[in-house]
Design goal:
nine-stranded mixed β-sheet; 5 helices; 16% helix; binds fe (ii) ion
Length: 322
């Protein structure tokens, strides 16, 4: 018997706007030639859709020309239309102003969705399966599972892992995600008196790198903190750091390091627009079962949580990037 997921079961995509004066060509050169993502053939002069080589879905990171740089939405795939309707009703009762669409909303193959303004605010879109699913680049028949030749010498991450955002009121955002949408808190950082929530890592389904699909941090505005992709292991990531530096990419001075918060080995770096990216491996093996309990960090352990090898984490690392 196969697993029959219900509700939200997958972080689908991160959709970002670039400004009208930003250079989509520079984005293409960076993500295609340095990071090593694969552009969908339906990309255009105003929108580029990327997926990782290990993803059997058409896109997971989208850039499109808008009025200004910023997060358009984070997309989560939902098991079926019945569950989508249930989540829409729950979002309505949670005062999140859900807007149902049964037509194209600017993303190829996506027709049935509900846009949600979660407290934060954090713009989400829940959608049922796209109308087509590409095969793995390696194929499904006796695959080699090795990085495709065209992507060697790039980072070539395996798949989208999580997206980090800042919001002014993380407790409200996390409360909505757990109470209304069924997310589970894997880890959290609280004030030393345990009265204030500073951050939380949330997930819906266990997966290869578990424990976080959304990372919520406190910040003065709603913005993207970082977008993270999965790599096989820390050794891989250290080689990638060399590739990135050889391409004169700006690395974040925090790391490469073990991040005890989320239990990953992580490297952070920046794209041409200043968006912070992460390559990570590891993570907790999490499952949704009744005994599951969140790991709790207090602020006095903040440095250890975010960068195990450093004595302190720079204030700059805590600021949203996009
Ligand atoms: Fe992260």
């Amino acid at each position: 018997m196969s697993l029959r997921p219900t509700g939200i079961y997958r972080l689908g995509y991160v959709r970002l706007a670039i400004g009208p004066d930003d250079d989509l060509g520079a984005i293409r050169r960076f993500y295609g030639g340095v990071v090593g993502l694969l552009p969908d053939e339906r990309s255009s002069d105003t929108q580029v859709l990327y997926r990782c080589w290990h993803e059997a879905h058409p896109y997971s990171l989208i850039f499109e020309i808008g009025h200004a740089r910023g997060l358009i939405e984070v997309g989560f795939e939902v098991a079926n239309d019945t569950d989508l309707a249930k989540l829409e009703a729950r979002a309505r009762s949670g005062a999140a102003n859900p807007v149902r669409s049964d037509h194209a909303i600017g993303l190829p193959g996506l027709f049935h969705s509900v846009a949600i303004e979660a407290p934060g605010p954090l713009r989400l879109r829940l959608y049922t399966a796209l109308d087509e699913t590409p095969a793995y680049v390696t194929g499904h028949a006796a695959p080699d599972w090795v990085t495709p030749p065209a992507l060697r010498s790039t980072c070539a991450p395996l798949y989208l892992n999580h997206v980090g955002v800042t919001v002014p009121d993380p407790a409200a955002t996390v409360g909505f995600l757990t109470d209304v949408l069924g997310f589970v808190v894997a880890e959290q950082i609280v004030s030393d008196d345990r009265q204030q929530l500073r951050s939380a890592l949330l997930f819906r389904m266990a997966k290869d790198v578990g424990g976080q699909e959304l990372a919520i941090f406190a910040g003065p505005r709603s913005a993207v903190h970082h977008v993270a992709f999965t790599k096989e292991d820390p050794g891989d990531i250290l080689i990638d750091a060399q590739y990135l530096r050889a391409a004169r990419v700006r690395l974040d001075p925090t790391g490469p390091t073990r991040q005890s918060y989320g239990k990953t080995f992580s490297l952070h770096f920046y794209d041409p627009l200043g968006l912070r990216l992460e390559l990570c491996s590891g993570g907790r093996m999490t499952e949704v079962h009744p005994e599951f309990e969140a790991v709790v960090w207090t602020e006095s352990h903040f440095d250890k949580a975010l960068s195990f090898h450093d004595e302190s984490v720079s204030a700059q690392f805590l600021v949203a990037s996009y």
